[in-house]
Amino acid sequence: MLGAFTGIATVEAVLLILFYFFHYILSGVLVMISVLMGIVQLSFLTALLISITLSLYSAIIGLMKSLDADDKVKRLTYAKGLNSIAIFAFTDIFSLKWLIILSYAFPPYWITQVLKESDSFINLIIAFVVTALWLCVLICKYLVKKRF
Q: Helix, strand, coil: what percent of the chain each, to 5?
């Protein structure tokens, strides 16, 4: 099993993740500026965990684009389609129970829930776990694809 995570595929995955480190920094800075300016009323810990979750989410989008796209044109097309995942952040507006239940599996829904109920530690943990699961699955899929 460990053999799948060695060699050139590991180097490429690490470089891809490091490339999105810039998004990590920007997400964190944006959330912290919002908290410091009083735009959003969040505790420091909540703001920090939201910024980490948003950073991981940006890496998820990047990995999803690079997994199936062979060239730049396909990546741009996928990027346009992947933006539709953001609709899950607004499913509470539609008041459709089946859509809300479907949204539980997507990170944007939980990020919005954390912002709506910033004192709910359970929502914060779920948001982080769902986002981390997405990232782990995509990294494993990326490594397996690069191996074969």
A: 85, 0, 15
Give the whole-angstrom CA distance, residue 140 versus residue 146.
10
Q: What is the pTM of this model?
A: 0.69
Structural domains of the chain, count:
1
Range of the domain at 61: 2-147
pLDDT in tens, 6-65: 555 556 556 656 665 666 666 667 777 777 777 777 777 877 788 788 878 877 877 777
Q: Which of 147, 130, 148, 134 is nearest to 63 (CA)?
A: 134
Taking the alpha carbons at both ends of the chain, their separation in whole angstroms is 14
Q: Which of 65, 95, 61 is nearest to 78 (CA)?
A: 65
